[in-house]
Each structure stands twice: as structure tokens, then as C-alpha cells.
What we know:
eight-stranded antiparallel barrel; mainly beta
Amino acid sequence: MSAQEFDDYTRNKTLYYGDQSGPYGAEIYLPDRRVRWSFLDGQCMDGQWYEADGLICFTYEERPDPQCWSFERGGGGLIARFENDPATTPLYEATDSTQEMLCLGPKIGV
């Protein structure tokens, strides 16, 4: 998927991803290639995405090292393959997720 195709498909959406073992996480795709990711644990990471060598790469405030993925459209939505570690199981867009993407505020105190 090219950067333009990815942007057209994801912009202003919240997509939920899973693998064969169940839900994995969700990402909100904001304008200007900004994103917010969560492993559905209430903790969210703000970041951005860009295209590099035909891949869609994400950087986050807490994880500045690029996380690069290849995306393709499958029958049920996007299929994402983590190219930093090709042995990783692909993720699939879960169109029927019942989990809400909740972002709790920052942890304060000890």
C-alpha cells in the first residue's frame, strides 16, 4: 500500500488490530499523519507516520525508533506485517472489536 492509499484508508478512523490469539491494539489516525496507539490497556502513545522505502513507519513520543510495517488490503480490512521483524505474526484489522480504545491520563504521584 502506498502512503497515499494508506492515508486515504485510515485518515480520521480508529482501527482495531488482532492476530490469531485475539485483540492486539488500536490506533486512531488523525490529520497530518498523526496517530495515537494503544495496546487496549488504557495507556496511549502519540506519534506520527511516514513512508520509507515503500513501508509505513511509525514513531512515537515514547518510542522514537521507527516501527515499519507493510500494509495490504484483505477481504476483511487491512493486513499489517511488522517489517522490523518479518517472523512476527501479521496483524489483521478487527472490524468487530468490542473493546473501546480508552486513553487514561498521565500517571501522577508514586
